[in-house]
Amino acid sequence: MQKRKPIVAGQFYPGTQEQCVDEVKQCLEDVVLPKTLPSTIVAGLVPHAGWAFSGATAAMVYASIKKRHPKVDTFVIFGAAHGYLGQPPAVYDKGSWLTPLGEIGIDEALARAIIESKAAISDTDHHNSEHSMEVQVPFIQYLFPKAQIVPILTPPSDDCVRLGEIVASIISIDVAIEGDPERKIVCLGSTDLTHYGPRYGFTPMGAGKDGLKWATEVNDKKFIEFALKLQPEKMLETASENLNACGSGAAAATVAAAKALGKTKGVLLAHTNSNEIMLKKMGSTSRESVGYAAIVF
Predict the structure, then answer these.
(1) Taking CA 259 as the corner, what is the angle to CA 257 and CA 265, rounded to the nearest 5 degrees?
(2) From 33's CA, which of 43, 113, 158, 212 has a CA 20 to 30 Å away?
(3) Is 120 helix (H, G, I), strand (E, B) or coil?
(4) Is residue 14 part of a domain?
(5) What gap in Å lies between CA 244 and CA 192, rounded to an integer?
(6) Total structural domains within the chain
(7) What is the Cα–Cα distance from 15 to 6, expressed in whole angstroms?
């Protein structure tokens, strides 16, 4: 059976089982959930930086899902495509993934249905160098040990909106065919927000505090507002024009799926950036900043 080995364990997140569990627990212990959670959750947007920076933010989405749905059968993970651009969405459709927490299986039947819909292609090779979905998996393994996954590399294009809509339709059919009212499939979109500063070659408001403030309070918020209003086409448009998301295709597919599954708005759980986290944890800041948001639908 084909098994994808982790590529960023020991870098973006701990490389041993014990350390990984300890950090997941710490991230979850810091979570304070709002009272305005949806009664059911069909999708969420999560960041994918190293856990030291974005783990606590991502944990809010997983804790919210766990609160509403103690058992989830499958997570469809729409991932950013850092090195896979200008291509159709690509599904890792067989075998399993490995992390320090062990092995998690691919929902091969659901993956096959997505491929047969022509909304995406089968391609396991390009997943081997992409971290945006891998950093999500230990959270899933810890909170939902019986869950499976369907990882989909999702470049930013009009195809991703159609992909999200088709995945939503397949999910509805899948649940109906299984005849299990408790069967639960959740979509996740993996994206960070504005990468601002000289290191990223993006300083339209200057390389200083005012520019960093703009990145969070203006540029990030454009993308977040379109996500909360379930406007995937606008998300793609603002990301292209304003460089305020690195996984806009993944996020847009997730929002399109949420909308097709009947959601009308999202709930923002948290919005922060790497500078705020550095200041809190290390007492210092940087000339650069990356935005992170946690949203559920």
Answers:
(1) 125
(2) 212
(3) coil
(4) yes
(5) 8
(6) 1
(7) 9
pLDDT, tens digit (0-9, with 9 covering 90-100), for 115-126: 999 999 999 999
Distances (CA, A) of 115 to 15, 75, 134, 224: 32, 16, 21, 30
Please check whether residue 31 is in contact with residue 60, taking contact to mean a CB–CB distance below 8 angstroms: yes
Give me the residues paired with residue 185 across strands.
Answer: 74
By residue range, what is the domain housing residue 52? 3-29+39-192+244-272
Which CATH number characterizes residue 256's domain? 3.40.830.10
Asked if the structure places residue 212 within a domain, the reply is no
Tell me which residue of 151, 168, 128 sits closest to 79, measured CA to CA: 151
Q: Identify the helix (H) or strand (E) that includes residue 112.
A: helix 108-116
- The verdict on residue 178 lying in a domain is yes
Beta strand segments in 164-250, E: 185-190, 195-196
Listed residue (64, 7, 59, 68) closest to 40, CA to CA = 68
pTM of the model: 0.96
- In order of 72, 80, 296, the CA distances from 59 in angstroms are 16, 18, 12
Please tell me what DSSP assigns to residue 129: G
What is the spatial distance between Cα 154 and Cα 88, in angstroms, rounded to a whole number?
A: 8
Q: Which two tokens stand for residue 91?
A: 């599904």
The answer to whether 93 and 152 are in contact (CB under 8 A) is no
Q: Work out the pLDDT band at 176, boundaries 50, 70, 90.
A: low
In a domain, residue 231? The reply is no
What pLDDT shows up at residue 289?
96
